[in-house]
Design goal:
about 350 residues
Length: about 350
């Protein structure tokens, strides 16, 4: 827009805002790369888990039982019915007991604990931990219900399934949270000045969480045997199964880890902006842009790309706010063209 002048102070605030948003996108991008590295699933609903995490924390702040606890019970019941159908020809008591424990007992315990603890107005970090405990198991149930039956399908089929899961979770969010927006209380509302900038402890938590998760995932996948087994599942699922890797366990693990990262993201951004049931889609897409820029394989590159996305968005909102989203999502196009030059073209990919 004409008449806008960028001076040092404004540039400093734009950089601060861009880095903060970029750190949030980095958390989502890391989770998307995590899931894709293990299961070949482009996990579009990652942003919905973030929104549900933020809304869950807001409900707990208000002393109310969040709708995600009931959603967890529903997911568990569907998972149990699917297990019963799977065991119809080979029913074993150990499998039945395991299914009851995972699909019925676990959601029931979480629901009971939240029912007791929600009205007590516990410390903010305890409420955040409860939020993560509610959201993280949802990753397992989404994998069990939607993706495990399609584990050997093509990437295209898995992508179509992700779109369906995204639409379903958005609809469930409307049912369990309603159309109103909520903002959670900050985990720490203290702040300090650094030159012209006002730095909040809440934003520092986002930076620290992003760095710790990025380093943790890098070490886990590159330095541990279990992490390498997870990556082997995506490269060659049949080969991994032949050498003893439990491919169903690796997929479930990846989804639980991604849901936990989403819950942490929701806890951290819930106090910064008002979250609605469908807010996660746009946030998740920007995390997906960062993952694409990172080649869907590298955690450090994805994190750096996410910071770049945040900075581009911040400066675009200043100079051309009407075209901000177009500019951000347009970053994908030249990267995909560049990657296509060096890619070996197989029909499935």
């Amino acid at each position: 827009m004409r008449g806008k002048h960028l001076d040092e102070t404004i540039a400093t605030f734009l950089i601060q805002d861009g880095v903060t948003n970029g750190a949030v996108y980095a958390l989502l991008g890391l989770a998307i790369v995590l899931v894709f590295s293990v299961t070949r699933v482009i996990f579009i609903p990652q942003g919905e888990f973030v929104a549900h995490g933020a809304l869950t924390l807001a409900m707990l702040d208000a002393g109310r039982v969040p709708g995600t606890t009931k959603l967890l019970l529903c997911f568990g019941a569907v998972g149990f019915l699917l297990d019963l159908w799977r065991m119809r020809q080979d029913a074993r008591l150990t499998h039945l007991l395991r299914s009851i424990a995972v699909n019925l007992l676990l959601p029931g315990v979480v629901y009971g604990l939240v029912l007791v603890l929600a009205p007590l107005q516990l410390p903010s970090f305890v409420r955040a931990a409860i939020t993560i405990a509610i959201i993280a198991p949802m990753g397992y149930y989404v994998y069990r219900i939607a993706y495990r039956p399609l584990a050997d399908a093509s990437v295209l089929v898995l992508l179509i399934a992700s779109i369906g899961v995204h639409l379903a979770i958005v609809g469930l969010g409307l049912i369990f949270f309603g159309p109103e927006g909520f903002r959670a209380a900050p985990l720490d509302d203290s702040s300090f000045t650094l030159g012209p900038m006002l730095v909040t402890v809440q934003s520092l938590m986002i930076y620290v969480a992003t760095i710790l998760i990025m380093v943790g995932l890098y070490i886990f996948f590159d330095k541990t045997l279990f992490g390498k087994a997870l990556k082997a599942t995506a490269v060659n699922r049949l080969g991994a199964r032949l050498v003893g890797v439990r491919t169903e366990l690796t997929g479930a693990t990846a989804f639980v880890m991604a849901a936990a990262i989403a819950a942490i993201s929701g806890v951290l951004i819930g106090p910064i902006t008002t979250i609605y049931y469908d807010t996660g889609f746009l946030i998740g897409l920007k995390g997906f842009v960062a993952a694409i820029l990172g080649g869907m394989v590298s955690f450090p590159v994805t994190a750096i790309a996410a910071i770049g996305v945040g900075l581009v968005e911040s400066f675009a909102s200043f100079f051309a706010s009407d075209f901000k989203e177009i500019i951000v999502f347009g970053l994908i196009v030249p990267v995909l063209i560049w990657l296509s030059f060096g890619a070996s073209h197989h029909e499935e990919e």
